[in-house]
Amino acid sequence: MRASREDRAGARAARLLTEALAPTVLVTALPLIAAARVSRSAGQFVLWGGIALTFCAVIPIGVLVHGVRRGRLTDRHVGDRTQRARPLSIGLASVAAGLLLLAAVRAPAELFAVIVVVFVVGAACALVNHWWKLSIHAAVAAATVAVLVPLAGPAANLGWALVAAVGWSRVRLGDHTWPQVLAGVALGGPLAAGTFLALA
Q: Hey, which of 93, 139, 148, 152 would disulfide with 184, CB 3.0 to 4.6 Å?
């Protein structure tokens, strides 16, 4: 009985971490954090943050929700690797459109770099997932922390504990293996850091 209660508690904790630190949540928060840091007025934040939010989060998340409602996707996390190509492609096209708009309104380099990171990491995940089910949760979590460290300071290194927690949650729920999680971290972290530092 005790083991059963512990198993249920572990499953609930894993589900909470998976939902709270899902890629959709992180790609919503990170551009807004960047926009808040570089904006010198409310108007700039609304303009730059609004573009980033719309094209990095609202449209891609809308595609996922629509796909689930239509029965084209099994769930919002797209657990079936064979279903990932279409939503990832549409999401990348949306982010690319957002980049063009941010360039047109002369958004600051740091914000532009964050959105390029979203695109590059998303493209890399899409490419790998064509052949193998890499953990996008782990890749995006690692990419987020890798960008927050130079963007917000050394204290953001505490976020690596959350990356580990996300990895544990994906394995605990049976959605990924540890090699898939570790591959996601190895892809997302260095790729995001290198891209951001090259552009910011």
A: 139
Convert the pLDDT of each residue in 10-61 to its tens digit: 889 899 999 999 998 999 999 999 999 999 999 999 999 999 999 988 998 8
- Nearest CA to 114 out of 9, 34, 18, 198 is that of 34
Contact 30, 144 (CB under 8 A): yes
Say which DSSP state 132 is in: S
Q: Burial level of 187, CB count in 10 A (0-12/13-18/19+)?
A: buried
How confident is the model over 114-148, as pLDDT tens digits? 999 999 999 999 899 888 989 999 999 999 999 99
Cβ neighbours, 10 Å, residue 75 = 12
Structure tokens at 125: 């995940």
Question: How many alpha carbons lie under 13 Å from residue 120 in its C-beta half-sphere?
Answer: 21
**Relative orientation angle of helices 178-199 and 159-172, to the nearest 10 degrees:** 150
34 close to 110: Cβ distance less than 8 angstroms = yes
Could you identify the residue written with the tokens 């949650």? 169
Question: Does the pTM exceed 0.85?
Answer: yes
CA geometry: angle 137, 141, 146, nearest 5 deg: 150
Alpha-carbon Rg for the chain in angstroms: 17
